[in-house]
Amino acid sequence: MAKQRNQRLRDPNARLQRIGQMPIDAQIREIRDVLVDMWSIISPFTITVTADYTASGKVAVEEVECNNTSGITVNLHALPEDRDIVIVSRANTGAVTVATAGSETINGNASIVILNQYDTPNFIWRADLNDWRIF
Predict the structure, then answer these.
(1) Among 8, 57, 84, 118, who pairs with 80 as Cys (CB 3.0-4.6 Å)?
(2) DSSP-derived 3-state class of residue 63
(3) What is the mean pLDDT of residues 71-75?
(4) Is 82 exposed, middle or buried (0-12, 13-18, 19+ CB in 10 A)?
(5) Is the pLDDT of residue 43 over 70?
(6) Bridge partners, residue 86, by sequence
């Protein structure tokens, strides 16, 4: 069962099907609103954290900037969808461990450690491999 990324969004397909019945100025406004809704689904979500954090999974691309001076863990979200991306950057001196929220793995491992400040691994969920991959 596929999860909904943002349940507050209106169904863009249903909205687009009704557009032909509207006056042209209303069509333009509606198309703009549909595009804004679609962008909010696919646009990156960025958050800066200083403590343990679990990725939200509400967007296709999530960027987590770790600005910690002591060790923290960033958990990749549970129930990922194919090609979900989580970018984790180590922006400060504290150690950062990236782990899975469930039985998923990262390149076959339960977790990885970002070794150097400013390293920024990108994680992509590959449903066909049932694994988070680093790219």
Answers:
(1) 84
(2) strand
(3) 97
(4) exposed
(5) no
(6) 62, 123
* Residue range 44-134, CATH number: 2.60.120
Number of residues written out for the chain: 135
For the chain, domain boundaries: 12-41, 44-134
Segments of 3-105 assigned E as strands: 45-49, 53-54, 61-66, 72-76, 85-90, 96-100
CB environment 13-26: b (16+ within 10 A), e (fewer): eeeeeeeeeeeeee
pTM here? 0.70
| Six-digit token string for 19 | 């557009």
User: Could you tell me which residues come within 8 angstroms of residue 83 by beta carbon, excluding any fewer than 6 positions away?
Assistant: 60, 124, 125, 126, 127
- In DSSP terms, which residues pair with 75 in a beta bridge? 54, 99
